[in-house]
Amino acid sequence: MRKRGSNGFKRADFDAIAASIRPGSRVLDLGCGDGVLLKYLKGARGVSGYGVEIDDASVLGCAMNGVDVIQSDLERGLSEFESGSFDYVVLSQTLQAMMNGERVINDMLRVGREGIVTFPNFGYWKNRLQVLAGHMPVSDNLPYQWHDTPNVHLCTISDFEDFCAGHGVKILERKVLTESRPVSVLPNLLGALAVYRFQRA
Amino acid sequence: MDAYDLVYETYGKLNADRSNAVLVCHALNAAHHVAGRYAGDPQNVGWWDNMIGPGKPVDTDRFFVVGVNNLGGCHGSTGPMSVNPKTGKPWGADFPVVTVEDWVATQARLADHLGIRRFAAVMGGSLGAMQALAWTYIHPERVRHALVIACAPNLSAQNIAFNEVARQAIITDPDFHGGHYYDRDTRPTRGLRVARMVGHITYLSDDEMASKFGRHLRNGKLNYTFDTEFEIESYLRHQGGKFSEYFDANTYLRITKALDYFDPALEHGGSLARALSPAKAKFLVISFTTDWRFSPQRSREIVKALLDNRCGVSYAEINAPHGHDAFLLEDARYHGLVAAYFDRIHREFAE
To answer: How far, in Å, are B149, B177, B216, B230, B244 from residue B210 at the CA level?
Structure first.
């Protein structure tokens, strides 16, 4: 797994995640980058927990942010973590960079009671327009050129929901955002970022 | 043992509320001289001088750092070379076997003496890291943070095997005299030399040895004799020789035993998590990718136990080529991380 890209993540997106999390809960943040989300959740929701990150510079960033981090490769599984030892396992802006997304979602649901995933919606109309124009999309939410991107498994909102339906994953909550504002109509077309909370069906 | 001496050094100033003290525990061959140089002996640099000092990752402008020579050592603290008051002769073979836990007990008495109720951090690498770890479950209230670097929760069979080869080299040296060699005016330097050579093999990675020495020849051509042909032979002989000049064989034997015996999980049905359950400290655990003596997997066992106990823990696996020795060497990622962690500790007690 490559480190989490910036992918245009904004404070309002943190709020969308924070709103889904009960105060004082235990959170594991997979692909936590420099720990800013956990730091935010600590302040906003009083959570405790750890980040998991493979990238050296991000591990250092976590230390600077005072966030506990375990340096580890998500692709190798979460063997350090006991089953059911967290209230939430968060995978924010990382699913699309995983080689084996199915495995990591299974791991999330083993270790946590609930999972939270955020990803850039490839079905967003601006992305579709760029593909129609003959190019891979490059935008605030997908800031990488095709030949130099950590994003190897991009998907749309519809793709993810199909995946959940077919893999025994029950969606508890969905939030779709564009430029940090909620989208309720035609989410797969008008939504740039998706936030899902789910559990084992 | 009724009484003993401990030699220690301190760096920096203890602050008014005595909250900025850092204890540095040493590994096999080091001692209390952790950082800096002596005024009259500028060649004698502290063994962790790249880590500890003014402006360094463990910044002595902010922290009060304590280095101590462990009981049983040969750098001034009471050890096998010291005189046993009951006999008037050096302890020699009669000096007791000391454990990691014994060392922690003696270090705690030193802390009492210095007026330190609680350390901001206890840190060490290798055997020193075992002491830092032991502090957290023996004196949970006295350790705010533990830095456990290049550690293992116990020795593997292979680790013990290397130690046993080292011990047999010493014990079977004719100059060893069952450990009572001081009054015979002799020392088992041959055995100690071989012991150190074996040790050095385990401190370096295969790659590091290959890149440092490869099959380079000492004299440009092969001579088909038992003199040193390859550079690596010369290196090991040099390291062994140097070590045997200043280190005491009885101390070496005891330190390898302390390593072998360390196994906190033993009294807890093999559960490291249960052994570490009293710990209240926050942890920084660091391993090095090429360390095959105490591999990253061994550090991950410690991390898993701490995660199971819901302790505050961060873990970093430093991609360094040097093997076990990496914990003593300068590396920007490693030192940057320790510096950032000590910044965090400093922010805590500054608040």
So the answer is: 25, 38, 9, 12, 25
